[in-house]
Amino acid sequence: MAETYAPRRTAVLLIDPYNDFLSEGGKIWPAVESVAREVGLLDNLRAVVGSARQAGVRVVFVPHRRWEPGDYESWDHPNPTQRSIMVRHSFARDTWGGEFHPDFRPGPGEVVVREHWAQSGFANTDLDMQLEQHGITHVILIGLLANTCVESSGRFAMELGYHVTLVRDATAAFEPEMMHSAHELNGPTFAHAILTTKELLTALREEGPGE
Question: What is the pTM assigned to this prediction?
Fold first, then answer.
């Protein structure tokens, strides 16, 4: 059964589209570059975001906490990713790496939710409230990383009652095995649909704007 996406009830959640992740010279780009190039990540992100906007689907920006001096240092138990951020200073505030990639910046009226501290875009943010206030029932998750923030946000969305779609080639991870886990092992336990970019774009075109 083909998935359908009523534009007024659907949102694309663009997770962590920072220069550090997506741009040459970014701190984390070398770790994701191989997988990103293999799946055509940047072109697919552009295609999904552009098609969503054209179809009248809301694009919601879901950013990670931008590192600031002192972050996590006084915490009782920062997780492994947070410990690496303390060393690497990923997405540092007021730096180029902590800016959104130039192709993925909010347009007029698009929501940028509060920054998430860990891996779920819903935990300790206003994402759920923003989606509810805009009448959203279906969320399409794209961005980084497939097996961390994308997966955690998708699981949380399912628990809150949203219809969840993952997009295999509009995300990336450090290793192919991580992509396999995200889409073949873990994704099917919580996602309602796991599509390619091409399949998603077909569904968005068939629904049409304003439906």
Answer: 0.96
